[in-house]
Amino acid sequence: PVAALEALAAAAPTAPAAERARLVALAVAAGRDVERLVTDPQLVSLRPEAVDLGALARGLASERVVVTIAGSPRANVDPTRIRQALANLVENGLRHGTTVAIDVGARDGRVVVDVADDGPGLDEGLDPFARGTSGARSTGIGLWLARAIAEAHDGSLDPVGAGPGARFRLVLPSASGEG
Fold first, then answer.
1. In which element (H, E) is residue 110 found?
2. pTM, rounded to two decimals
């Protein structure tokens, strides 16, 4: 919710009313997600449904977050949990870089979501998913929680590639089983 409110504050003076309304709606939805997370007796309880992952990712788009979608990737997931995982990846990318790219598509019966930033990349030998691991201004649990959410959905979240910037790949079972 804080990231959405920061984006709203930054955009408010010049953004069209529709963009301000979208950012307010995103902040409200994120607040509800946080409420569910902190009141959930289990860390990762799931309420799966068929979800258009492209639409879910598009909800995170902003001036600094570009979303590209190939096809209509659908997964049987809990939208609140997957939104939280994606938001954690985006927040991590924006904390270490200036822009984030989200690419969503389907492949081999799986939905694949790549989240990449233009920051300095991952420190060699550092486990980015270890709780308490943080490069800057964070609690160090965002990536750990994102991976726990992916695994609870019979999916995975891993760093991919080398070079400038960090890139993470979230893989989830497709709702249709097709890719």
1. strand 110-117
2. 0.73
